[in-house]
Amino acid sequence: MHGPTSPGWLLVTLCAATGAYCLLRMRSRVEEQRRAAGGEAFMGFGMAVMAVPTAAFTPPSWAWPAYATVFGAAALRALWAARTSTHHLHHVVGTAAMVYMAVAMAVSPPHAHAHGGAASGVPLLTGALLLYFTGYVLLSGARLLPVTGAAGGTPSAGTTGAPGAAVGWSDRPELARACRLSMGIGMVAMLLSM
After folding, report:
1. Given 3-state DSSP classes, what are the helix, strand and coil percentages for the chain, each rounded to the nearest 5?
2. Fewest CB atoms within 10 Å of the CB: 48, 58, 126, 164?
3. Where are the domains positioned within the chain?
4. Do 44 and 36 form a contact (C-beta atoms < 8 A)?
5. What DSSP string runs through 53-106?
6. 84-105 pLDDT, tens per residue?
7. Cα distance between residue 125 and residue 100, in whole Å
8. Whether the Cβ atoms of residue 167 and residue 157 lie closer than 8 Å to each other
């Protein structure tokens, strides 16, 4: 994850901006959207922290196990929440991927972090995660394409109100999808640097 400096800072910026927007989305009037936005904000900021280039900051040896523990707890929480919503299954995969990357960085030699070298992980698991997140990015991108309403009408307001009702910016489904898309792109970038 700690490869070249410029792409690393771009990834940090993308993930931190996404996390910040997700914090703002927590102002939604819909409880499920607030919960999902909170989990996504956590992932965005966690990804930003893990992506900081080593030229700027080399984490101490205890940081990687700490990341694995924190994201492991988040994975268990997402697994518990998946009982009621299938969207949380994606959070389970995302947090499990973060645990995997933290463990891989913890067991890799210190010089591999500075040179962006391959961590000693299971290549099959890295490949499977790359396939999942690449598919997720493509599907999320396709969902952002505009859909025209029937017979020249306007698209419905979504789940937050009656068709045609005003929707607050924190409840806009296309903004939530864009947020998820950017985090998916960030996850692909992080996995590629493994």
Report:
1. 70, 0, 30
2. 164
3. 5-61+103-146+167-192
4. no
5. -TTT----TTHHHHHHHHHHHHHHHHHHHTTT-THHHHHHHHHHHHHHHHHHHH
6. 877 779 989 999 999 999 999 8
7. 9
8. yes
Contact yes or no for 143/179 (Cβ under 8 A): no
Contact present, 67 and 98 (Cβ < 8 Å)? yes
Which tokens belong to 150? 């029937």
Secondary structure letter of residue 50 according to DSSP: H
For residue 72, what are its two tokens?
Answer: 């492991």
DSSP code at position 143: H
- Say if residues 92 and 82 touch (Cβ distance below 8 Å): yes
Q: Whose structure tokens read 């306007």?
A: 154
pLDDT digits 0-9 by tens, 138-183? 999 998 887 665 444 444 444 444 454 555 666 677 788 888 899 9
The angle, 0 to 180 degrees and rounded to 10, between the axes of the packed helices 63-81 and 31-50 is 160
The span from the CA of 51 to the CA of 45, in Å, is: 10
